[in-house]
Amino acid sequence: MELFDTHFHFDGEESYENFLARCREDLQLAGKNFRRLPDKLRMLCAGSDFEESKIAMGFADNSPEVYFACGVHPHAAEEYCKLTAKVDFSIFKDHPKLLAIGEIGLDYFYDMSDRESQLTTLQEFLDLALKWDLPAMLHLRDKENIFDAYDDALTMLENFTGKGGRFVIHCYAGNREYAEKFLALGGFFGVTGMYTFKAAHNIREAISVIPTGRLLIETDSPYLAPVPFRGRSNTPGMVALVAQALGADRRMTPEEAAQTFADNAKNFYRINKKGELV
Ligand SMILES: [Zn+2]
Predict the structure, then answer these.
(1) How far apart are CA 239 and CA 61, in angstroms?
(2) pTM above 0.90?
């Protein structure tokens, strides 16, 4: 049985060995209700900008269970657009462990980048995802009861999927109505530790309309540690608690849930049964 954390961050401040040791410790804590612990913990390291994408690639190069994605987060979009000499993302192309273009998207909650830069950058990377035939991994966030980021993304994703693009909305925190709109475009949805938060009824409600086959699990670590570890630093090992909570709501044992969502990720990211990329 395996587990697959499809979205986490690694800042390169500690050694790969140290980080992976912390993941294993967390897996022991988080997997308490598993009858046996998963034999394998796969993980996908997201890149929030060029430098972080390079760090993620280095991690993937050094660790068999680590894959990576490259992209520019909406928070970094304004700075990216201001670069006079463009950084060269083509260094990541054809890397055997590059699974997605991300983390890319729109964040109208913090608005850390101006919206024009966010839209331009997202479009550039959606085009890259099409060109490199990789799924796009999106971050979308709006202020409460406003859906501008979701609407702008929908328009772009209609175009993207019309050309054969595939996408996942990571850490889905939208409502049911938008879940249905993204589902209609063939979208996948990432579920994080937020799913275990007591007050997150809205998230559980939105996720409830999504078929199991369209769900991926993730930690978004170091953020969003699940209950009962909320507030502390998170690692991919904690994804066991996301599998357990989401599985319980779908009448799956923790072991069944771990394998089901790992299989979803392996299919979505085109990794075959032996763990090789196809
Ligand atoms: Zn993230």
Answers:
(1) 22
(2) yes
